[in-house]
Every structure is written in C-alpha cells, then in structure tokens.
Specification:
The protein is mainly α. Helices cover 64% and strands 0% of the residues.
Length: 89
C-alpha cells in the first residue's frame, strides 16, 4: 500500500474477501448469490465484534466481564497480540 508496512490481519482478510467476490462474480460458478451473502454476513459479524470490542475497551480494567469479552472479540478479530485476561486473586 506504499506505507512501508506489511498489511495486518484486517487488511489481508478484506483483500481475500474481495478476491473471493471477484472470482465468483465471473459467472463460472453457480454460487454467486450464496458467496455474496456469506461475505456480507462475515463483514457484518466482524463489524459487530469491532463495536463490541470498542465498547469493552471503554470499561475499566477491573471489569472482569469486559476483559473477557475484549479477549474473546480480539481473538476473532486479531487486532492486537493476544494477552491473557487477568484472573481474580
């Protein structure tokens, strides 16, 4: 992309989705509608997870539920290197 960095997981996923869409738009396959639906659902789900993660990041570190949700959502999205959730002593 010209900015001197390797693309992250988010960008790579979006590029792959676009490749899949383009491959299935040519009409060589009989699954264009199904593929379009699947890609749309995946994008909607990832967007929802991103919004959930953002809401949980606004909560204090002491909120264990928010920490667990942050950990799970980030595990799916891969935005940050994973780190274990703090456990209650």
């Amino acid at each position: 992309m010209g900015h001197g960095q390797v693309a992250g997981r988010v960008e790579l996923l979006e590029w792959r989705l676009r490749d899949l869409e383009q491959t299935h738009l040519a009409g060589a396959h009989a699954c264009e509608d199904d593929m379009r639906w699947l890609v749309t659902e995946l994008r909607r789900s990832r967007d929802a997870l991103l919004q959930i993660l953002a809401r949980c990041q606004d909560e204090p570190e002491s909120d264990q539920l928010a920490a667990d949700v942050r950990y799970l959502a980030n595990g799916c999205l891969g935005l940050y290197p994973p780190r274990p959730t703090p456990t209650a002593a």
